[in-house]
Amino acid sequence: MSMLEVKDLSIHFGGVKAVQNVTFNIDSGIVYSVIGPNGAGKTTLFNLITGVYKPTTGEIKLDGEAIHGKSPNQLAERGVARTFQNLQICMNMSAVENVMVGAHLRLDRNLVKAALRFPGLKKGDRELRDEAAQLMDFVGLSQYVETRADAMSYGALKRLEIARALAMKPRLIFLDEPAAGLNPKETIEVDHLVRKIADSGVTVVLVEHDMKMVMNLSDRILVLDYGKKLAEGTGEEIRKNPDVIAAYLGAHA
């Protein structure tokens, strides 16, 4: 059984069919990339799987259990995390505090304990801070632990958002354009980080426009075009697919 199964998934916004009858499976422990031209439905597909949107038709299963219609919080409890195209960072908080926010589902936040500041909760906060600092080291940001987010570079903030998603201890993480807006050096850093995440045992689903990065990282690739599945396969299969070349990669890709 595949870790994630998507079958005949569609969503319509009025008369606009943003995703149409898309079917694919993702095995655990791989990097699975979703590519396609602007407006192809990539982020909409992410939003459907991660509970931001409810599908018009179709089904989504995680480990054989139907999850379509579940909220993002419910999916997070099942080990699903994601990042977004636009940064979702609290700029008035420190970097480590931002990562701590990502672990909120695992915290005991009983209101009485929070009000009285029981020692057990203080101990939990200390442990969580240490864990967040370790995650920042994992993504290459150990020098920014106490830095306010608004004092960090854009490239560092992109990796900070990944650290925050990892703080949820996901089994499956969706990364929506993690290299968007980065310079070549920062893109290489994110490339290495995505592989590092996959090597740690977390299944990665990636939307990315940097085709060199996609081809370097991906075990399997799904190509969307106008909300429909155009092709699926290995990087080599996608690179040689004439329909993909015509729709997205270009004649010299």
Provide an overview of this structure.
The protein has helices at 42-49, 72-77, 95-101, 111-116, 119-138, 154-166, 184-199, 211-217, 235-240, 242-249, and strands at residues 4-13, 16-26, 31-35, 57-62, 65-66, 80-82, 172-176, 203-207, 220-225, 228-233. With 253 residues, it is an alpha/beta fold. It folds into two domains: 1-79 and 173-180 and 202-253, Rossmann fold (3-Layer(aba) Sandwich), CATH 3.40.50.300; 88-169, Rossmann fold, CATH 3.40.50.300. Strands 6-7-8-3-9-10 form a six-stranded mixed beta sheet, with helices on both faces. Strand 4 and strand 5 form a beta hairpin. Helix 3 (95-101) crosses helix 5 (119-138) and helix 5 crosses helix 6. The longest helix is centred in the middle third of the chain and has 20 residues, at 119-138. It is globular and about 50 Å long. Mean pLDDT is 90; it is low at 109-113.
Output the CATH topology of the largest domain. Answer: Rossmann fold
Overall radius of gyration: 19 Å
Q: Can you identify the CATH superfamily of the largest domain?
A: P-loop containing nucleotide triphosphate hydrolases
The largest pleated sheet is described as: 6 strands, mixed
Helix-residue proportion: 25-40%
CATH architecture of the largest domain: 3-Layer(aba) Sandwich
Strand content: 15-25%
Q: Can you count the helices?
A: 10
Total DSSP E strands: 10
Kindly provide the name of the CATH class of the largest domain: Alpha Beta
Q: Give the helix/strand class.
A: alpha/beta
Q: Mean of residue pLDDT?
A: 90
Mass-distribution shape: globular
* Number of domains as seen in the coordinates: 2
Q: Termini distance?
A: 34 Å
Strand order of the largest sheet: 6-7-8-3-9-10
Regions with little confidence, pLDDT below 50 for 5+ residues? 109-113
What string gives the helices and strands in order?
A: EEEHEEHEHHHHEHEHEEHH
